[in-house]
Design brief:
It is a single chain. Helix content is about 85%, strand content about 0%. By secondary structure, the protein is mainly α. It has two domains: about 55 residues, no CATH class; about 200 residues, no CATH class. The longest helix has about 50 residues.
Length: about 270
């Protein structure tokens, strides 16, 4: 067991409500009787509790269950917070996925071959996957908005216009400016293509995650071992692991390609 995990267990042991009640009662009794003896006895009991009780297997199992529950609730809150920002079509898909997750969990817990105490950490992965779906939906929604204002044909027309102007331009300074605009247009076209590719990839990943949940819902009753359930869920998780990298890539893209090109085009027209 790691030091961090040990620290978490001992924190739970110390801040356990019954332990705090005992400490408060000991202090109050000592103050009432004007005697140090209750404090000494309480301190001894506290040391025994923290050294022996907190390190006992039953308490560690209880602490692990508490931590699992708290982590799951936190993940659920994060997923719901993201989902509240989704447009209706995405929100409906998230709710449908949530219903599938609830069905999978209910069937897994009812499966006599799977011990409920052991599959808790595996079922917690369903919350992680729902959170991942909400994040993918939010990113897909964001890219959809970008694509609505972007027009690849306009980008290509701008490139063609600059190339024609450059072919007939004899002034070196004007030609240098045109080449700069051409480089910008080509860069923005590549950016637009990356946006469209990421948008398509997100759509595929969301669709695959939904289909994976439906498959698991239909087959969870036939799973005979916890390891099988873990393997199925881990395989689904592998499909969403690149999400953070995709988010960073989208954040690095900068302003809309079309808006930047329109600004450049307006500048050329003003100079002309």
């Amino acid at each position: 067991m790691t030091v961090a995990r040990d620290a978490g267990v001992f924190r739970r042991a110390f801040f356990n409500q019954y332990n705090l009640i005992l400490l408060a009662g000991t202090g109050l009794f000592s103050a009432t009787t004007s005697s140090w003896l209750p404090l000494l006895l309480g301190a001894g009991a506290e040391v025994l509790w923290l050294v022996l009780g907190a390190d006992s297997p039953p308490f560690r199992r209880w602490a692990a269950r508490q931590q699992e529950r708290e982590q799951r609730e936190a993940a659920e809150q994060r997923a719901r917070a993201v989902a509240t920002q989704l447009a209706a079509p995405y929100a409906e898909r998230f709710e449908e996925l949530s219903q599938l997750a609830a069905s999978i969990e209910a069937q897994a817990r009812a499966n006599p071959s799977l011990e409920a105490r052991l599959i808790g950490p595996e079922l917690a992965k369903l919350v992680h996957l729902r959170h991942a779906f909400a994040d993918m939906a939010a990113l897909h929604q964001r890219l959809s908005g970008l694509l609505e204002e972007n027009d690849a044909r306009e980008l290509r027309r701008d490139i063609a216009d600059v190339e024609r102007a450059l072919a007939t331009e004899h002034d070196p300074d004007v030609a240098a400016g045109l080449r700069q605009n051409l480089d910008l247009a080509a860069k923005r076209l590549r950016q637009d293509q990356r946006i469209r590719a990421t948008h398509r990839l997100l759509g595929v990943k969301m669709d695959t995650l939904e289909k994976s949940f439906r498959y698991l819902q239909a087959n969870v009753v036939g799973i005979g071992r916890r390891e099988e359930l873990s393997s199925e869920l881990d395989e689904i998780i592998l499909g969403v692991e690149s999400l953070e990298e995709m988010q960073r890539e989208v954040d690095s893209l900068g302003p809309s390609p079309v808006m930047t090109l329109r600004a450049a085009r307006s500048s050329r027209q003003a100079d002309g």
